[in-house]
Amino acid sequence: MQPVTGIFETRATAExxxxxxxxxGIPANKVTLLTPGSQDHMNKEIQTVPTETTEQPGMGNxxxxxxxxxxxxxxxxxxxxxxPGVGPITAxxxxxxxxxxxxxxxxGATAGGKIEKASFEGLPEDEIFLYExxxxxxxxxxxxxxxxxxxxxxxxxxxxQSGAESIDAAREQWWTGLRTxxxxxxxxxxxxxxxxxxxxRLGFQAAMHARTRCMEFxxxxxxxxxxxxxxxxxxxxxxxxxxFTQGYRRGREHYQQLCDENQRAA
Length: 266
Fold this sequence. Notes:
Helices cover 55% and strands 13% of the residues. The protein is built from eleven helices and six strands. It is globular.
């Protein structure tokens, strides 16, 4: 499976893009819409959206699809969850549950069991921090898993025609928002940020991977070392280790700060 993502300024345009993909034949369990929302908004929405496509409005609450969890997880289900460092999020379907779970949200025992049984090969765990950044800024995210490259190209075209920003553009915006503060912090090490930025950024991004966040450093050090060795192989003869390691540590600190700020605001 190949993941394709579009980021939208408004929920309305994201919903239109989501429906367009479904109408084009993307299976409901291979596409999701993630939208930010307050807890009040989510509680109101869960009263009006069916948990199953065959249920009547209002049944979602009766069936127990609660904030932080969900049941009846099908292609048409609506899930509400709190993502650490982001806040309350609404997601659609089993793919949405998988993304929320990978981001550290609690999506409920029923959903969790179905996610484990489902196949989500290609779920872009290394991009989830970009979805979180977009959601934090009030944007909505549409994600689809395409069967192959021709299908992925078709999805990208559809999202672009719907007004989506690409994940690559989102990645650059994310780093632009961080760059000035990280440059100032890095300057205290006595090294040149302009010379080391590429490898510092690779380390920072590696630390944001959904699989290793919120763990103690000794639990992820082996993962960091493995990623560092891969970067060294890609850039032979370059001074990689120091900037990559510093970037990795800064990435961990950055994510923890987001979580702390979210907890204080709760």
